[in-house]
Amino acid sequence: MFGISPLGWLHTLGSLPAIPVAFYMFARHGRIVPRSIPGGVYFVSMLIGSATVFLVAHQPVSYVIGLITALLVLAGYGVGLLPASPRLARYVETVCLSLSAFFLMVPTVSETLRRVPDGHPFVTALDAPLLLGFQAGLLVLLVIGLSAQIIHLRRKGTAFRG
User: Fold this and answer.
1) 142-162: per-residue pLDDT in tens?
2) pTM of the predicted model as reported, rounded to 2 decimal places
3) What is d(CA 73, CA 62) in angstroms, rounded to the nearest whole number?
C-alpha cells in the first residue's frame, strides 16, 4: 500500500505521533513543552523518525534532514539541563523544537503528496508547483510562528520552568 516497505511503515508509524502531539502543544502552549507527557511522546517519536530515515531514505537530502532534525531535538531537550541562563535556555529550546517540527513537516507533506491517493498521487515530481507551494506555506508558518514565539518569550520574560 502506497509503495511503502515494512521499514518504511516502521519509520512512518514511529514518527507519526509527533505530528498531532506537536499541533496539540503549539495550540495549547504556543510551543513544544519538552518536560511534559506530550513532550515525551514528541521526543521518542522524533528520535524514531530521525533514526529510521537512514534505513528508508532514497534521496541524499533525506539523510541531511534526518540528522538536522535529530540534532535539533537533542539540543532542544538538552539545553534545559545545562547550567546556562534559564531565559536563554528557553529561547534555544523553543527555536530548536519549532525547527524540528518544521523539519518533520517538510518531508511529511512531500511524501504524502507523492503517495496519496494510492496509485494516482497529487504530485509526481519534487519540483511540482503544488508541492513547492505547500513547502513555501510551511516556511511562512515557521517564520510567523517563530516570530510570535520569540515576541511572547520577550514579553513574558520569565525564567526557564520546564
Assistant:
1) 999 999 999 999 988 754 454
2) 0.91
3) 16
Q: Does residue 96 have a pLDDT over 70?
A: yes
pLDDT for the residue 26: 96
Element (H, E) at 55: helix 37-56
Phi, psi of 67 (to 5 degrees): -65, -45
CA distance 80 to 114: 38
Cα 113 to Cα 98: distance, rounded to the nearest angstrom: 23
- Phi, psi dihedrals of residue 64, rounded to the nearest 5°: -65, -45
Q: Which residue has the cell 519538552?
A: 34
From residue 11, alpha-carbon distances to 66, 108, 160 in Å are 11, 11, 33
Residue % of the chain over a pLDDT of 90: 81
Q: Closest by alpha carbon to 21, among 133, 100, 84?
A: 100
